[in-house]
Design a protein that fits this description.
about 280 residues, alpha+beta, PH-domain like, 6-stranded antiparallel sheet, 3-stranded antiparallel sheet, about 20% strand, binds zinc ion
Length: about 280
């Protein structure tokens, strides 16, 4: 296979009439690591569509001299998540069902990473596991193999360069949250953006709503698919419990409630703690 170079990627994109934003600095040969092979045009178009949808956010977010090196998407706790590896950091965007970036946005500098491992889905549930310096963890599944390889290379190269340069910005937590309205950092344990005044749900507000009525937690985070799944589970559990109670079997419903509710509550706690979910945005003038 011939080497993937920037010139070859650009001519391939031009051939497919796909044009990246000139305002964003891309390392195209790693953003599009495959340009040869069967059914590749479809794969390239799909990748381009993903990149194009996050370009408006990237234009506002990227720092001076920040270069986009890998763009990928996968699932974090079943939520569609796009990841952008730059020369400084990994930016994460939650995506809605239409594939558009929506709240919540977050990022982590490579200098906040203890270890980054990529594995094959066949051998593990997660394709990407990042251990963070503050004890946090980021696991993402269903990532393409070529992208996993590109991620590992981007991380290793960047970490080496940044260590040499002594680049280590201070942070309030390894995975910093961004305001979904103005894209400024909202420090750890703060639920109001100092820059624009937007307010966000506190994790305990979300989880307590979940405990009162499970779909409510997903609903306030605007994760409607999750809310619908919780509603379906709730109905199913209610039916199972009714059947068990009719048979005077109290142990079984109790066990289901313990296992399902607590497992889902832990997931929700993780999601609510790794991203900010809009409560009230300021009026745009
Ligand atoms: Zn803001």
């Amino acid at each position: 296979m011939t080497e993937v170079t920037a010139d070859r990627v650009i001519s391939k994109l031009n051939e497919l009439n796909l044009h990246l934003s000139p305002e964003i600095n891309y390392r195209v040969e790693t953003v599009f690591p495959r340009i040869e092979g069967m059914f590749l045009n479809r794969e390239i178009r799909k990748k381009f569509q993903l990149v194009q949808r996050i370009e408006p956010v990237l234009r506002e977010l990227l720092l001076e001299h920040e270069q986009v090196q890998v763009v990928s998407k996968g699932k974090e706790k079943l939520l569609h998540t796009a990841m952008v590896f730059t020369n400084y950091r990994i930016v994460c965007f939650r995506m809605n069902s239409k594939g558009e970036p929506k709240q919540a946005f977050s990022f982590l500098y490579y200098t906040q990473i203890d270890s980054l491992k990529t594995t094959n889905s066949w051998s593990s549930r997660d394709d990407l596991t990042i251990a963070l310096k503050d004890g946090g963890k980021l696991t993402v599944s269903t990532i393409l193999k070529t992208e996993r390889e590109a991620m590992l290379t981007a991380f290793q190269n960047a970490q080496k360069v940044l260590t040499e340069q002594g680049f280590d910005p201070s942070v309030s937590q390894s995975r910093e949250n961004l305001c979904g309205n103005c894209l400024q950092v909202v420090p750890k344990d703060q639920y109001q953006c100092a820059a624009c005044g937007a307010t966000f749900w506190k994790p305990r507000e979300i989880v307590s709503r979940y405990f009162l009525f499970p779909p409510w937690g997903g609903f306030v985070m605007k994760l409607y698919l999750m809310a619908a799944i919780h509603l379906a589970y709730l109905i199913l559990i209610m039916i199972l419990i009714s059947i068990s109670l009719m048979r005077s079997d109290y142990g079984f419903p109790l066990m289901i409630i313990m296992v399902v509710y607590i497992k889902a509550a832990m997931n929700m706690w993780f999601i609510a703690n790794n991203g900010l979910y809009q409560k009230k945005f300021p009026q745009r003038i």
